[in-house]
Request: fold
Amino acid sequence: MSLLQVKGVSKHFGNLVAVNNISMTVEPGELRAIIGPNGAGKTTFFNLITGFFLPSAGRIIFDGRDITDLLPARRVWAGMARTFQVTEIFPELTVRENLRIAVEAAAGLRLRAWLSQVDDQKIRARISELIGMGGLSAKADRQVGELSHGDQRANEIMMALALKPRLLLLDEPTAGMGDQETYEITHLIRRLHKDSKLTIVLIEHDMRVVFHLADRIMVLDQGKFLAEGTPQEIAANEAVQTAYLGQAA
Amino acid sequence: MKEPPKQGIDRGLVVLAAIWAALLLAPAWMPLIGGYTALGTRVLVLGLAAMSLNFLLGFTGVLSFGHAAWFGLGAYGCGLILKYVALSTPLSVLAGTLLGGVMGGLLGALIVRRRGVYFAMVTIAFGQVFYYIAFQWSSLTGGDDGLRPFYRQPLHLWFATVDILNNTTSFYYFVLVCFALAVAAMAFILRSPFGRTMVAIRENERRARFLGIPIELHIWIAFTLSCFFVAYAGTLYALVNNFADPRGLHYSQSGDFVMMAVMGGMRSFWGPLLGAVVFVVLQDYVSSITINWQIYIGIMFVVVVLFFPRGILGAIRRRAAA
Reply:
């Protein structure tokens, strides 16, 4: 069964149709990239999936369950986690504290006034595991706000992973990064996908990253569906070439 | 560079010990610098109110400008019990705390979706409703004259009876014990998983939401707890004065609490207590010289906000860290 089925969703802001009747099906274990020129509606589409906005039309089915009307927190509980185009972290807390909040939320302990020794041990172990996975061991006790952009992004992805999601949504994970940082984040995503068999949907501008990582690519243009296929198919697609290069050619 | 954490913990313990030592010995050292015990009692009560407000403002990032309403309801609840129902200090404290806390929780449920300035404005509006009720309902509340007469009652402990009415020192220690209980509860909550979600909401509401934390529920719980704490402080205030004043519910009183918290340092747990020390001492000292004491507190506030945006304690901490 497909993990995520988006059925004909649209989003209107007044007269602007930001997303126009888009469908997408993501299979378990797949890494799907969404690309498109600026203003194609990629982030809005993401926001509809994660519940940041409610769609004007269409349905969203996650793991066989209709989640179209669920609040964001409930979609997280159902197994979705996301990162944002502009990194969303807890800047004045350390990496460890950032992750602790995520791990406790994931363990369903968010309303607890007290933790048992056993729970506390488990949480600490999980935090260490995530810190190691994100390559943040040397910076675990530094304020996240002081870290480099790449490390902040790694911290954000680790917070999302702390939720043990079945679907991870990454909105431009390498936005605004240098080559080295882009390489490291790409490598991290690849590991998550290959080693942990995590299902990932990502929006990305950097075509090297997209063609390196994606199993399938969906292309949006001006809020509409343009094409979908394997990286090879998309590279050969004329409509895609026109959308990206059309005005220049 | 930040110092290694171990040293930080040690220094934290030293500071904590110093604070409690100063509070425990206050009746001994305050007269030496021209103070008096009753002034210390006022500092504790208003400091507790400011710390209660800051539980919400500094640690959840939500500004309430109507906390005087719950403070005042606590005071009236306490006074009404002592005047009409039972001559029992513990019962009156309990009743006032419940009255203010429950009302705060009920109204809080209506407003947790508002944010920032809108939230602050709605809290002022609700707060003023209670101010006018206290002001107008003369037959019950004494109206503009306030609720009187009532008197705090001796405490019956299992080994002795303590007179807290006439003996200012034993009353100070009674208030200090009440203060310590509330402060310990606040510190305990802030160190818990729930407390960390409060800080998460302050730091980044969007991130917290997408970690699966239902923001509105958590803000409501934090708001309600804060209302219970401030109402509890209000009951102590009624015991301090043997009197409940409608002006204790007015939004200008809420403003005083916000001033204490901001002046002392709202990112620090103890900051608002320091703010209350400055506020109460300045008020006591300057008002004996001129009736325009508020101007001087206002100037002090502006200076602190301009030059020490993290408050007095925030500035001291930064110094200590450098």
